[in-house]
Amino acid sequence: MLPPPREPGHYSIAVVCLGNICRSPTAHVVLEARLAEAGLDDRVVVHSSGTGDWHVGEPMDRRAASALTAGGYDPSRHRARQYDDSWTSTHDLVLAMDADNLADLGGRSLRVAMFRDFDPVEPGADVPDPYYGGADGFALVLEMIERTTDALVAELAELR
Predict the structure, then answer these.
(1) Domains and CATH numbers, the chain
(2) Between 23-37 and 62-70, two packed helices, what is the crossing angle to 10 degrees?
(3) What is the pTM of this model?
(4) Which of 22, 35, 100, 105 sits a CA distance of 20 to 30 A from 126?
(5) Per-residue model confidence as pLDDT tens for the chain (160 residues)
């Protein structure tokens, strides 16, 4: 399912949502942690961004950060940034968090897909935006992201 790396021995992934304060930074933090656990952090780099510019430079939403902290992750380094169209030519894989984000990225292509295309439970589904809900929505998103990330890391481990 993974497109081939642009450079042998290295792989770059971008995760993209709307404002880069909830879903994509959660995926970024979890993916980096799981890559480190798998010993792949020296070969795979992760970036995250939002399609909008409302939160550029801000830390992630406190509820997302709280869910990550409760899960044993460190969300403190994140600062929101905006997606740059050049990322489709500089990243090996760009993953949208929902169908609207995918449309903003120009739709599916060899290197653009949905994050949950790798979800073993509900492949291709949206990662729901928890922003306007309560803490339980952030916990649910974290659970989806962890499960999907584990499957993605397993595929990345197969790349040589």
Answers:
(1) 11-158 (3.40.50.2300)
(2) 30
(3) 0.96
(4) 35
(5) 899 999 999 999 999 999 999 999 999 999 999 999 999 999 999 999 999 999 999 999 999 999 999 999 999 999 999 999 999 999 999 999 999 999 999 999 999 999 999 999 999 999 999 999 888 999 999 999 999 999 999 999 998 6
